[in-house]
Amino acid sequence: xxxxxxxxxxxxxxxPWYANYAERTAGLAASEVRALxxxxxxPEVVSLAGGMPAVSALxxxxxxxxxxxxxxxxxxxxxxxxxxxxxxxxxxxxxxxxAMEGIKASADDVVVTTGSQHALELVTKLFIDPGDVxxxxxxxxxxxxxxxxxxxxxxxxxxxxxxxMIPESLRENIARLxxxxxxxxxxxxxPSFQNPAGVTLSWERRLEVLQIAKENGxxxxxxxxxxLLHFDAPPPPALRSVEQxxxxxxxxxxxxxxxxxxxxxxxxxxxxxxxxxxxxEAAVLSPSSFSQLIISEYLDTIDWRAQVxxxxxxxxxxxxAMIGALTEYLPNLEWTDPNGGFYVWLTLPAYxxxxxxxxxxxxxxxxxxxxxxxxxxxxxxxxxxxxFCYPTPEAIRVGxxxxxxxxxxxLDL
Length: 413
Ligand code: PMP
Description:
By secondary structure, the chain is an alpha/beta fold. The chain is 41% helix and 14% strand. Strand 4 (154-161) and strand 5 (164-165) form a beta hairpin. It is globular. It binds 4'-deoxy-4'-aminopyridoxal-5'-phosphate. One of its GO terms (molecular function) is pyridoxal phosphate binding.
């Protein structure tokens, strides 16, 4: 791994600095499908590719009201640097948000970050040396794996089924990697409404996964952006609600309010919290005071739980539109049927390659993310992640219909 040269996408021979890039930039290869996504953002294309929340479902007047109050009453605080750990009042409110998923904690252990994405980066920076191992579900969140690679970690995948990560596969991976002398630094998991597979780790398995992690001295990194966006029953309680010392929990307001605020958080075991704050300060001095105060004001004065309910309604309707369209147009394929979140995972016949098929899909005015993006090891060739979060139900139906044409076209070849 350490002899890896930066790939041509990190810089090429026309770039005079090509030879100077740090080796870790090898992990920052631009995705091969990026250029296509530029085309896919044209309005006539139905994009089932991105994970953009439906911010139009958040009444902007309410945000403006909160912002105005903050500027009138605490303008000089909002415009100033703040604590590297985050605004104390917001950290208290975050405790109430996490309590909805069974978590009891102290505001002292909450570190506000610039989205949960930045928390992922900070945790990786704290724990990973080149060649260390991260275990993650297969498939897993693409931009977490980009971070792991940029710190020169190896990502190894734990198999999943409809009930989430399979404990037996976790045990096998640990035994195999330990026998190879590898250092497994943490287990990265998205237990509820997983990105990209849409599945949820069952309660029994949550307990088993925690037990295995504990037995083997492996830290668990629980990433939970979607847990509150359930369509009927809530998911089982968070892993962090069961185990405190061995779990770092990540949350975010990106999906329950808006991603433009860039406010997320880490709830860390006491021992790790201090290092996280120092890393946060080194990276950004302090997370945005302006965004944090607006969110804090919003949570204080506006019925945020009702807003989360509205989001649930919007996404439930879109999910139903997608499952209905898949049932109608692609009845012979397999897909996951999530009870929350943003994503459906579609399986094509084994001989189809979803990445090769993408240019043709874009020509037919529908875009998706090929499954290989979500594996560190080339898996997912015949899978597709379909996002139902952003397009309207009508657009989703049109998109799946177009996808049917594309897939049928491939089968005719
Ligand atoms: N984790 C997962 C699983 C995600 O899907 C996302 C956003 N798509 C993030 C983390 C990052 O979210 P944010 O930085 O907006 O909080």
